[in-house]
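Quick review question:
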């Protein structure tokens, strides 16, 4: 095993969680200690739902000791440990962080966290699942559209009738988002205000609010020239409403 090249070890480590890598290799010998501290190695960390309290705390203490510019992704798949998530001090030194996943995050923690992500130069992917039933998603979407490098957003919200009150975007406010996945219901006319911020999308998925309709004369067309995939979930979407929607996005 000692005869394997460093490059091969980097490929092996790419399949492993960072906390497991540290547990197995950090105290093995000097060579592996240097490998773990190399800027060529990027860490992916996942906090699982099934992890015990002791293991969760141990892994959390490890990640905050990592060199911040080696962290590629952090996924919190546990709905507990609110204080630990809120104490995660993300700043501009996380300059290689690309992905965050938060399962059942409290809305107040999410709103306080999102502005910290704005300076990150490689922050491309965000998946969030709000823990409490949150009906007004306006504030969260405002912060999401302020993230300059974000390309993928998947938003779960525990609300049967979520609302978003956003004005139509001016040209300077256009987001770089390519994948927009809204796992919450939204009225079709409210969707158009969101689309005005995401005219670069190629994948769009959303859940239509029940009994939501469109009046053609009240909807301004939005050009989505890159759109290649469209998924609409709902139980009562009429063909007439779909026809108006599809013609309004060209």
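Suggested answer, residue by residue:
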């Amino acid at each position: 095993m000692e005869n394997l090249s460093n490059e091969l070890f980097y490929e092996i480590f790419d399949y492993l969680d960072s906390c497991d890598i540290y547990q197995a290799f950090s105290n093995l010998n000097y060579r592996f200690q240097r490998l773990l501290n190399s800027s060529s190695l990027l860490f992916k960390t996942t906090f699982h739902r099934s992890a015990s309290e002791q293991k969760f705390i141990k892994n959390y203490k490890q990640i905050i000791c990592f060199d911040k510019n080696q962290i590629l992704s952090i996924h919190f798949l546990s709905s507990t440990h609110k204080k630990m998530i809120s104490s995660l001090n993300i700043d501009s030194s996380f300059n290689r962080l690309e992905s965050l996943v938060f399962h059942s995050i409290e809305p107040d923690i999410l709103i306080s966290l999102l502005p910290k992500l704005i300076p990150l130069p490689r922050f491309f992917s965000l998946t969030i699942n709000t823990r409490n039933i949150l009906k007004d998603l306006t504030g969260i979407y405002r912060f999401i559209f302020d993230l300059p490098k974000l390309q993928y957003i998947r938003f779960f919200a525990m609300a049967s009738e979520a609302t978003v009150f956003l004005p139509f975007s001016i040209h300077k406010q256009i987001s770089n988002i390519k994948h927009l996945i809204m796992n919450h219901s939204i009225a079709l006319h409210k969707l158009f205000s969101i689309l005005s911020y995401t005219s670069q999308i190629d994948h769009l998925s959303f859940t239509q609010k029940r009994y939501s309709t469109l009046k053609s004369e009240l909807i301004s067309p939005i050009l989505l020239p890159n759109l290649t995939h469209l998924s609409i979930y709902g139980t009562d979407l009429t063909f007439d409403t779909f026809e108006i929607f599809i013609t309004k996005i060209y």
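Why it works: The chain has one domain: 49-248. Residues 111 and 140 are 6 Å apart (CA to CA).
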